[in-house]
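Example complex used in Figure S2.
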Amino acid sequence: MLPGQLTPEQFAGYPPGARRIAAAHIELLRKLPLGFVPLLLREVVTYDWNFPAERREVDSQFTYLESLSAPALEQIMAGFAGLTLSPRLANLDWAGAPAVFSEELSAHLWSTRQIDAFRAAAKQLVDRVHAASPPEPLPARRLAMVVVGRGVTENTQPLFQKLRPHGTYYADLRAPDGVRLLLGAVAARARKHPIPFAHWYIDGAAGEKPPDPAVTCISYGALEPVRAAVLGKLRAMIVAGKGPEALRTALAGMKPADLGLASEGDAEIIDRFRVRILTEGSGAQIFSTTFVQWTARELLRRAQPLTVLARFAPRQSERSMYEMIADGGKSAAFDPAGSLIDADMGAWYTWLNHRRLPEAEQSAFLAWFEGHGSAIAIGPAVEPNREHRGPADMAQVLAALA
Amino acid sequence: MSLKDAPNGLQEAAGLAGRSRRDFLRAATGASVGRTLFPLAPGTARGAARKTKTVVVTFGGGARDQETFMPEGHANIPHLLHELIPRSTFFTQVVNRGILGHYVANASLATGAYETFNNFASVPPPTPTVFEYFRKDLNRPAADVWVVAPSAGFQRIGQSSHRRYGAGWGANVVLPKRLLAAALPMGSIAEYERLLHDNYETPLYAPEDAGGDAEVHRIAEMLNLSVSDFVAHAGTLTSPDELSVYIARRLMRQYAPSLIWITLHDIDIAHAGAFSLYVEAIRRCDRLCAELWNTTQTEPEYAGKTMMLILPDFGRDSDEDAGGNGFQHHRTGDALSRTTWMAALGAGIRENIFVDRPAETIDLTPTLGALLGFATPFVRGKPLEELF
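Predicted assembly (790 residues):
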């Protein structure tokens, strides 16, 4: 089937919001090339469970594309229209199951060496959409805080090497109650700017008590039953001899209810986010450090929050993948030293992902080695590539980032 | 795949990666970078071809410059920097323009053509492999060509499905983990799990066994492995790559094959997202490369007449590409994930030479053909003339 043959009935399997969006824009969808329209539908089909920022992105794409004249639309779609697709791809149920089509398209583009052409077309489109749809001003600057080193007694590795050129490094940060202070800072921002899905606390262990009802918490420890359910389903599929494509499809199709989560409304959006972390994040099911880094990355990319506090915890020591899958880490020893190295890199990646969001030049960032007195602060009022000599306290650093 | 995947100017970025590698290496090794090269007269290298032994080491899981050739990575590759590269002709930018999956990429290295089959399928390459070219054209026996492969997915890499080659002309493929699993007594597999992990791209899946137990036992017999010695030695090893190197050294001692190809794979633990484990694997890989080189210098059948080529099959995603997650994967197809390097050292290879021009991973097999004197009629790459 080609896009010109789309009918509203083909969206019957979509959730209500997605169905409404797809039907409202069907005239545009019919004009788009097969190399692109299923990718847009893939974003539409999850509309009901997307974060507000993701919905805005989908809406912006429709608004931009519908604003174009026919020649301009043809021009921006030329890169996608120029892709050579196989008849097999065209025969897939790309309207009903756009995610499956997307996987198949990706494999096809790699094997036919068209992936670079696709990427070029995608970048051009994303740049144009962003240029045409400037983001709304933020009510406050974004703040991301990363806490590393829980459980580490001694460390000889220099930390935050990649981050130091961008901010001020504190070698003697006195913060005996630092975690509480940071949680308090998240709670205060949540109260001041009560926006849904804007304030988050991620923890690599069980986590502290949520600092405020307006702060969304996600922790490796609290998700243990869900991780166990994911790993259990994977084990069953492995025993049944399922191949990687079948595993991926099964993982992508898992819903909160399949894993013991049952919720509605905003809570369902969060549960679906949790499930996607565990079903899409490679290693997030077995290493708590990977879980924290990947969750922070996906949160920033998808929800574009105002505030994130990500606290790493020791991950299990390396064993064979089968052992780690088999018991989910219950019987494992921990590796605090290795986890510190993972978390240091995780802090760097969190900053990179934070920097990719709108108004990045105004955003603030803190990475802190808890219990050991070193930290790096990055923000518009913080001097880059500088080392703060002498003692400092956490409240002072937070004030500099406010 | 995401619409937010950003493209890079591959050629330009690959060139930058290569120049950075050269500059950092010059600082680290004091090498005479950019020495003018005058290709030797054709046949100079070929004259010794029939006596030359060749060891090819590929990494099925690349390492990025940040963790290797850039200053902050030097601590991870002391053996490459100070022992191997100073003895090498070093290609600073080797680009892989094919599919970035380890089996299909290693198969492409072996065939000299970008293969497009499913990376996770247990299929032979459709294009003839270097092993078949070598054996057929030079009339070499089966025991003269071996592949030590990291995972079950590689079990068909030794022999293509090409009608003019294929059956009877391939390499012996040994999968050390399967050998160990077959050798272990009932109930003891758990103790050796750390050595048996199959692969990291899809840690939950191993392709079906095409050879079966009979093949495992045939290989074990050829290697004359004492089960108890093998199991006892395996107990002293810490990683699958150490097991592979142990098997490779055993092969070299027992059969002294003229062409041995070993793929190291520990670095691909990066897919689990733990940076410390990835760095640890790079350090191990660096040490194992030096150990293999030292073996070629001390084993009587190899000393003084062995050429060794070391190259990753491709790189890993850059930190800067929003479509990826940095070191963890090789999914974006960005320039850094496609650009790698190659060190060639040993018999007939000039030392302390850096080559900055772009080469491709598919140039390996035609280069071996030109160096060793066999025809490679179906390759798409070109011989690297700097090695002649």
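Chain B is about 35% helix and 10% strand. Residues 96 and 338 of chain B are 5 Å apart (CA to CA).
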